Amino acid sequence: MATKTTRTEREWGTIEGSDEAIVFAETIIEDETAEDEKHRAEAAAARAAELKSLAEARKLAAEAEAAEITLRKSLLAEREELTADKHHHTYLFDKEVSEATVKACVQQLTRWERLATDPLTVEMVINSPGGSIFDGFALIDYIDGMHSRGHTVNTTAYGMAASMGGVILEVGKIRSMGRNAMLLIHEAQFGAIGSFGEIEDRVKLVELMHERILDLFVSRAQPINPKTTKAFIRKSWSRRDWWMTAESAVRLGFADAVK
To answer: Is the pTM of this model over 0.85?
Structure first.
């Protein structure tokens, strides 16, 4: 049976041993080398594309992880923010009674009231050494106004409700004291300089403020203890600081409950 030969083999057989054979062989080798280089280049390009895709995938994964961490931090910050007193209608009054502290308190109460769609219940926590009578009564009047508009402000003393801080305690719908809290009631303190008439006018003003304070204490105390009269309070606070425990304050009617 005759054996078929390829064209290359026939060409090779024709020129074998000649210079043409050498050139032909070199051409074949060059073609094979070029083909190999092409395959290697294609393989390298494929590998590069694979590495690029892998790098992009890793980048996307890192970005997704970073976004997840940012989201978790944001959610944690939001949860922590929502624990703040302002989100629970709780106001801590822990400074002296002054124009600045009363203004800050009234501004917060106003914000809550304006944002409310239903009647509010505000818990005011007091730990104050007292301060300005006039500023204190400005806050008391504002809270009374909230009560008249259907809202509720309860007051609780922790630490101390002293002097005007104790007077503010009385404006709460429910007045509570911590078991170790102390209430201080005393006569107004003031200094006066000037003419005799100016000092007399100052004394008369203080007497008016005394009456306002006594009226508030008595109005809240007598429904609980009828013996807590103006005369009793005047005698008890005259020329001294009248400190009392939470239990004594409840017994006399200056507080409703001990927490």
So the answer is: no
219 flagged as catalytic: no
- Whether residue 89 lies in the annotated active site: no
Q: Which of 5-14, 37-46, 130-139 has the highest mean pLDDT?
A: 130-139
- The one catalytic residue among 89, 128, 151, 163: 163
Residue recorded with tokens 């009793």: 232
Cross-strand pairs, 176: 156, 257
- The answer on pLDDT for 14 being more than 90 is no
pLDDT reported for residue 114: 96
Q: With residue 127 as reference, give the H or E element that holds it.
A: strand 121-128
| Residues recorded for the chain | 259
Task: Give the C-alpha separation, 9 to 37, whole Å.
Answer: 25
Instruction: Check residue 73 and give its pLDDT.
Output: 86
Whole-number Cα distances in Å, 21 to 6, 34, 238: 16, 20, 133
Half-sphere exposure of 153 (CA within 13 A, CB side): 28
Q: Per the residue annotation, which of 89, 128, 151, 186 is the catalytic one?
A: 186
Say which amino acid occupies 215. D
Q: How confident is the model at residue 39 (pLDDT cuts 50, 70, 90)?
A: confident
CATH superfamily of 86-258: 2-enoyl-CoA Hydratase; Chain A, domain 1 (3.90.226.10)
Pairing of strands 175-177, 121-128: unpaired
